[in-house]
Amino acid sequence: REIGTIIRSLGCCPNEGELHDLIAEVEEEEPTGYIRFEKFLPVMTNILVEKRYRPIPEEILLQAFEVLDPTKRGYLSKEELIKYMTEEGEPFSQEEMEEMLSAAIGPESNFIHYRDYITMMVIDEN
């Protein structure tokens, strides 16, 4: 259950389907709920060497937020963000949603100023 967090902490951004496939690749024949490090290490090393699951570039993230903000206000309300995160595309889990909201939403304004948020979440690849 923590493997996605580990992989993402290494700078990889697989979607849920890719993560599921990766777990299936390193899981034991009889799933125990645990992954053996000896099995995980070579698979993860290959992923890092091949630069698989690279994060989305900043410009693409900005375009995505701008699609959700057709009037170009530069922000989305908490309610709008929750709607998009739960009703569109690959839905966020409750835990993912709460984590994102706590990092993205201004506590006083109840808005996400997405340019600031994108700057905060982009990984420097250099």
From TrEMBL:
Q: A Gene Ontology molecular-function term?
A: calcium ion binding
> What are the entry keywords?
Repeat
Which residues does the UniProt record annotate as the domain EF-hand? Answer: 56-91
At the top level of its lineage, which domain of life is listed? Eukaryota
Checking InterPro entries in the record gives:
EF-hand-dom_pair, EF_hand_dom
Q: Which GO terms describe its cellular component?
A: sperm principal piece
One of this protein's Pfam families, by short name? EF-hand_7
Q: PANTHER family from the entry?
A: DYNEIN REGULATORY COMPLEX PROTEIN 8
Query: What is this protein's record name?
Result: EF-hand calcium binding domain 2
Gene encoding the protein: EFCAB2
